């Protein structure tokens, strides 16, 4: 780039000024070799100047390259906030820059096409990657067994599907482009300076600090994800138990606990790096003389590489939940029950053995009994295995041994959809039903109104 400039809001500039007046202004200028501090561009339909002027800090003899540089400002935004603010004007910027460059200089067309391709590729590929990760994560969580939710705090799941997924959606693809650009700029500067000085020592120092930072920063990101899940879990439990907390006047204790968890999470992110020595003025002068552009390029290269390395931890955390062992197949094509199954309702349990995890003791050990169809059977007593038996009927917990046979069919041999769609359960916690009576009796709309009326008359 042969001159430096600042554009406070390139879209505002291109939108508020007419292209013909802008070209006429520079074409009629007679002081092409003089340096100016600023040029106020006025709108032909308004009498007021633009609040933030377009500033040139070098010779106007290079003004014919202005359209390409306007687009470069859009492509070189160094923060996600700025990128989000300018996302809606990408198309206008690129089209305007292309036609201006067509008029002023033909050889800039290819560069505009390259920038257009890079921008579109970043948006499209980043969106597709995020959608793919989200669909795999959602499918894995929906297919996870009930034992996973029994042993995993709710806040840990919420942390992954909120903050980690937000980083993947909004930050990673932009940061990846910035990291590649900064690495290319730093490598180019090193190649140019290699003819005059040897950059070996500089590279070794940078690589040393980079490796030292990676080893600590990535672990800090893991600690941050773990401690943040405690905050989300405590908040979810406080909201669900708000009535009980207020009834026992424990608001202050829960609020203090919440502050402690937030402090623990923030403490895991505190990090201080202090220089261990000083440099002589001669060394500083040489560094400023020979590496004025190199140090900036290296700074951005390392900063973006460290940022992308920290963001990748979010992908790692999502990947852990994308490979959760799933439940059995929903539909077994070769072994589907009849359409009217179960017709009698006979349940036969043969030597049923159930444990919740492989390394734990049996909860139900060798249970055998028969429930005849049409009978009402009650299981009472604390710790008698009521919830475990109900979970076994729906295969929420897979039996470690034995069988459950319903009307002559072993429920472990059929798909989960065929099994759970034929059974019904009434939860023990009372709830207020939302929606119509028909929706609560038949949420999947699989029965006619006449069939629902018949059920209501029987009840």
From TrEMBL:
Pfam family, one: ABC_tran
Predominant localisation class: membrane
Name of this protein: ABC transmembrane type-1 domain-containing protein
Keyword annotations from UniProtKB, A to Z: ATP-binding, Membrane, Nucleotide-binding, Transmembrane, Transmembrane helix, Transport
GO cellular component, one term: membrane
CDD domains according to UniProt: ABC_6TM_ABCC_D2 (cd18580)
Residue stretches making up the ABC transmembrane type-1 domain: 111-268
Organism: Pyrus ussuriensis x Pyrus communis
Topology with respect to the bilayer: Multi-pass membrane protein
GO MF annotation terms: ABC-type transporter activity; ATP binding; ATP hydrolysis activity
Subcellular location: Membrane
Coiled coil: none
